[in-house]
């Protein structure tokens, strides 16, 4: 296998892999930052920047199940508040600027759910953000284009609906909510 930033990331994360710990997240963040800093002379990255596909699977680990995706985004693309279920995720910005907000889920005594925004952060090339199980966030592309990597602990599309699946929130009457009491 050719050695480049992508293969180095894969090899390094496979070596570090284990149960979710502070050390594992820190190690994966460090490797994701190196991946985000890859030279666009590397053929795999040059192809991503040329093709600008909305979603490309770069790697799926057959033993551990983690998945690395690349997303090309354009100005204003907004992904409403969501969590990643029981999974943790890293976002690494390779090019452009992406704003990420974090939210807290509040349940009123009558069972209605609403989100309260905690903060907003602008991530730029080389920045990496971790979201742990249950963390809620949104994203918005601020630059003309952005290329980001999303590393997930497992395939989110194959998530078991009985084991805390991904939750996507909707806006109703100016409030982000699940749309029904939980």
Question: How do the helices and strands line up, and which of them pair or pack?
Answer:
Layout: H1 5-16, H2 22-36, H3 43-51, E1 56-60, E2 67-74, E3 78-82, E4 89-95, E5 97-107, E6 113-124, E7 128-131, E8 136-141, E9 145-152, E10 170-172, E11 175-177
Helix pairs in contact: 1-2
CATH architecture classification name: Sandwich
Give the structural class. alpha+beta
Total discrete domains: 1
Classify the beta-strand content into a percent band.
Answer: 35-45%
Q: Round the mean pLDDT to the nearest integer and report it.
A: 93
H-E order: HHHEEEEEEEEEEE
Low-confidence stretches: none
- What name goes with the CATH superfamily? Jelly Rolls
The CATH class assignment is Mainly Beta
Give the strand line-up of the largest sheet: 1-2-9-4-7
Quote the distance from N terminus to C terminus: 48 Å
Helical proportion, percent range: 10-25%
Q: Helix count, per DSSP? A: 3
Radius of gyration, rounded?
17 Å
Q: How many strands in all?
A: 11
Shape: globular
InterPro entries: RmlC-like_jellyroll, RmlC_Cupin_sf
Protein name: Cysteine dioxygenase
Fold and architecture overview:
The chain is built from three helices and eleven strands. Helix 1 packs antiparallel against helix 2 (22-36). It starts with a helix and ends in a 5-residue tail after the last strand. The protein has one domain (5-156, 166-177): Jelly Rolls (Sandwich), CATH 2.60.120.10. The protein has helices at residues 5-16, 22-36, 43-51, and strands at residues 56-60, 67-74, 78-82, 89-95, 97-107, 113-124, 128-131, 136-141, 145-152, 170-172, 175-177. With 182 residues, the protein is α+β, with helices and mostly antiparallel strands. This is Cysteine dioxygenase.
């Amino acid at each position: 296998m050719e050695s480049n930033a992508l293969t180095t990331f894969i090899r390094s994360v496979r070596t570090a892999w284990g149960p979710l710990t502070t050390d594992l997240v820190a190690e994966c963040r460090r490797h994701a930052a190196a991946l985000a800093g890859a030279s666009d002379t590397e053929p795999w990255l040059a192809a991503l920047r040329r093709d600008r596909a909305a979603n490309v699977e770069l790697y799926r680990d057959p033993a551990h199940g983690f998945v690395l995706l690349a997303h090309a985004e354009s100005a204003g693309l907004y992904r409403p508040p969501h969590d990643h279920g029981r999974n943790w995720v890293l976002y690494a910005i390779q090019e452009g600027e992406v704003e990420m907000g974090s939210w807290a889920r509040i349940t009123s005594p009558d069972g209605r759910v609403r989100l309260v925004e905690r903060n907003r952060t602008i991530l730029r090339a080389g920045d990496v953000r971790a979201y742990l199980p249950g963390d809620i966030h949104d994203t918005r592309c601020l630059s003309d284009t952005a290329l980001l990597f999303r590393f997930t602990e497992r395939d989110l599309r194959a998530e078991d609906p009985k084991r805390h699946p991904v939750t996507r929130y909707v806006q109703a009457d100016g409030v982000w909510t699940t749309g029904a009491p939980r």
